[in-house]
């Protein structure tokens, strides 16, 4: 008995678990400080900078990187690319946890969590873009919960309930795509109200289009990136069907991401042309804009294309990581770096270590939940009771995106 | 001030002209990019 408890202790005391424990403890302490001392106690937010890293990273990046849910389910169920079916459950789980953590993170910014349902059920600001974002996130989180629930119901053994939910798959996917299209673009539209605050190179009337198109690339890249990490750390949870389809999913998604990034690059260039902002490119902000555009959009686009041609899976994975970093850089630029660009340096915002620690805490909670769920429920493998009904695994695509 | 725009019409004419030229180049560029992206697949299919 004591030998057994010793081995459990040994398996729990891994470097990852110890680090996660420290982060969680720090996060709990900071949460108490946030809700007792207020925003001023833990953040560098001010009247000039009311939105900080919790909005830039937790919300804007969180929502963009959770776009893998609607892109994967749309590819599989709407465009009929059933060969990507094995990627749907991990993508839906990532999206569900991503959105759930976006809502959790929002509590830190907004405060008074008991008032969170007010904008939806009590006092709707129907003329506000932020209301539309809130409504869409609320509805999409509910949709993702239902889309994820078959895995949970299979695990719990509720066959009838699972059957009912699976019948709604197509309707849920369509609803998810509509809601995502609306709020991914509306997150960009939020900044349309501040033309004098956002640097002209990042400000454009096409911001909603930029946010939506880049979210597709982010979603596709995140599926590849998350699949890479899962392969490395959760290989033992994957069945033969998932493993055999992995290369096909990676190649197909890389091809799609390459095309989307090429389109996004063209749109960004057109954005400069339509506002005649070429002269800003020779300034310091222009140099940083070019870094974002060339290193984090054009470069991964070309790397993806080269990797797809050569069937170079490691290069695809590096390109996915670069794209994910690029999306984070873009959201940071729009909401922090290029925001209030005309203010003197002393009035500019830089997050406090406590704000950053809360964001790290939220990511850690997400990773732990992902690990907990995917190591217990049929996410990377099929439940034996339902294995017969699933489509064929992915093969390396030969034509178009398929 | 040779690049100054005195009317909205001047500005729109300039930006729209540049945008139309860019879109033309982008359509051709995207076609080439698509051929590059899928070219190797077709090679394999022929073999």
Q: Largest sheet of chain A, if any? A: none
Termini gap of chain A: 54 Å
Q: Which chains have the largest interface?
A: A-B, 20 and 20 residues
* Poorly predicted regions of chain B: none
Judging from the principal axes of the Cα atoms, what is the shape of chain A?
Answer: globular
Structure summary, number of beta strands of chain A: 0
- Helical percent range of chain B? over 70%
Strand content of chain B: under 5%
Overall average residue pLDDT of chain B: 86
Give the N-to-C terminal Cα separation of chain B: 61 Å
**Order of H and E elements of chain B:** H
The topology string of helices and strands of chain A comes to HHHHHHHHHHHHHHH
Strand count, sense and barrel status of the largest sheet of chain B are: none
The portion of residues assigned to helices of chain A is over 70%
Multimeric state: heterodimer
Mean of residue pLDDT values of chain A = 91
Fraction of residues in β-strands of chain A: under 5%
Rg calculated over all Cα atoms of chain B: 19 Å
Low-confidence stretches of chain A: 390-402
Give the SSE map.
The complex is a heterodimer of chains A (402) and B (47).
Chain A: H1 2-12, H2 15-37, H3 39-42, H4 53-65, H5 68-78, H6 88-110, H7 118-121, H8 129-156, H9 159-167, H10 169-189, H11 207-233, H12 240-275, H13 284-310, H14 313-337, H15 353-374
Chain B: H1 8-46
Structure in words:
The complex is a heterodimer of chains A (402) and B (47). Chain A is an all-alpha fold. Chain A is built from 15 helices and no strands. Chain A has helices at residues 2-12, 15-37, 39-42, 53-65, 68-78, 88-110, 118-121, 129-156, 159-167, 169-189, 207-233, 240-275, 284-310, 313-337, 353-374. Chain B has 47 residues and is mainly α. Chain B is built from 1 helix and no strands. Chain B is rod-shaped, with a radius of gyration of 19 Å. Classes of the chains: A mainly alpha (402), B mainly alpha (47).
């Amino acid at each position: 008995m004591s030998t057994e408890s010793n081995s459990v202790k040994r398996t729990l005391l891994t470097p990852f678990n110890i680090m996660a424990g420290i982060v969680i403890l720090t996060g709990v302490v900071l949460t108490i400080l946030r809700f007792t001392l207020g925003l001023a106690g833990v953040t560098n937010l001010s009247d000039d900078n009311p939105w900080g890293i919790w909005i830039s990273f937790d919300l804007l990046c969180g929502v963009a990187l959770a776009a893998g849910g609607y892109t994967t389910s749309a590819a599989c169920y709407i465009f009929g690319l059933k060969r990507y079916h094995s990627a749907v459950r991990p993508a839906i789980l990532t999206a569900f946890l991503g959105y759930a953590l976006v809502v959790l993170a929002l509590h830190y910014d907004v405060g008074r969590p008991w008032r969170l349902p007010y904008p939806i059920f009590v006092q709707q600001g129907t003329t506000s873009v932020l209301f539309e974002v809130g409504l869409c996130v609320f509805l999409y989180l509910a949709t993702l919960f239902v889309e994820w629930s078959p895995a949970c119901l299979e695990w719990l053994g509720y066959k009838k309930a699972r059957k009912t939910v699976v019948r709604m798959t197509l309707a849920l996917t369509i609803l998810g795509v509509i809601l995502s299209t609306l709020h991914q673009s509306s997150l960009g539209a939020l900044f349309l109200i501040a033309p004098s605050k956002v640097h002209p190179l990042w400000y454009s009337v096409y911001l909603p289009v930029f946010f939506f198109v880049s979210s597709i690339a982010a979603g596709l890249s995140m599926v590849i990136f998350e699949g890479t990490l899962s392969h490395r750390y959760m290989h033992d949870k994957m069945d033969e069907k998932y493993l055999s389809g992995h290369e096909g999913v990676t190649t197909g998604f890389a091809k799609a991401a390459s095309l989307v990034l090429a389109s996004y690059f063209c749109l960004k260039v057109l954005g400069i042309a339509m506002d005649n902002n070429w002269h800003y490119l020779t300034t310091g902000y222009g140099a940083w804009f070019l870094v974002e555009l060339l290193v984090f959009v054009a470069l991964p686009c070309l790397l993806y294309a080269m990797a797809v041609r050569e069937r170079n899976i490691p290069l695809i994975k590096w390109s996915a990581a670069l794209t994910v970093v690029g999306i984070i850089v873009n959201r940071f630029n729009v909401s922090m770096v290029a925001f209030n660009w005309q203010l003197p340096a002393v009035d500019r915002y830089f997050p406090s270590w406590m704000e950053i620690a809360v964001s790290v805490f939220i990511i850690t909670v997400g990773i732990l939940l992902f690990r907990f769920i995917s190591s217990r429920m049929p996410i990377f493998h099929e439940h034996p009771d339902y294995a017969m009904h699933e489509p064929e695994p992915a093969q390396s695509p030969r034509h178009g995106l398929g | 001030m040779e690049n100054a725009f005195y009317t909205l019409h001047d500005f729109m004419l300039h930006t729209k002209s540049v945008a139309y030229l860019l879109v033309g180049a982008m359509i051709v560029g995207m076609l080439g990019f698509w051929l590059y992206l899928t070219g190797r697949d077709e090679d394999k299919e022929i073999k």
